Amino acid sequence: MELTFQQLVFYGFSTLLLLSALMVILSRNSVKAVMFLVLCFVATSGLWMLLQAEFLAVALVLVYVGAVMVLFLFVVMMLDIDIAARRHGFTKLLPLALLVAIAFLFILHWLVGDNHFGLEQMEAPSDHDASYSNIRELGKMLYTDYFYPFELAAVILLVAMVAAISLTFRGKRSRKSQDIDKQVRVTKADRLRVIKMESSSSSQQTDSKSDEESNENKDKEQDK
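User: That's the sequence. What structure does it adopt?
Assistant: Structure tokens below.
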């Protein structure tokens, strides 16, 4: 069986993805594990390019590789996690972990097996002309067929973000807050205060008077 160039590229990216994912789990260094995870995302973007999903491939590289994984790398380097302390008592939970892993593999095989993702169920992507835009097609699908799941995912992410901020907040609870009703009912007298100040001419006159008085006092002292 002669392999085409597209099949060779597919098997190359798939092998790279599997090996890098395996190294993410087996790597003892957290920084190296993050770098292998970056390699996983790059290989996944290559597979999406083969499926003619250019927007998803570019978004994966820009968002995850360029932003999220850089953030992960900074967090891992700043935390300086003690791996030996984390692995203490690992053997006690090893049987439970193996059972969970086996159950996960069975579920994964059932989901991505031939019954759901075989060649009979999933057709190969057809070729399109130059005017075809998968970004436009993706937007149509998100806001028509998958509108409610898309909005539900956005709400779940918003709730998770608010919960994370509230759980990690360590500031003072007795902080100032706005009173909207008081701000609306405010008047000009509450905000504006008129201060009477002397003009420049009057200030000069007072200065000259004070100078004259001081000179007179000096003359009187000299006469005495």
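The domain at 5-132 is CATH 1.20.120.1200 (Four Helix Bundle (Hemerythrin (Met), subunit A)).
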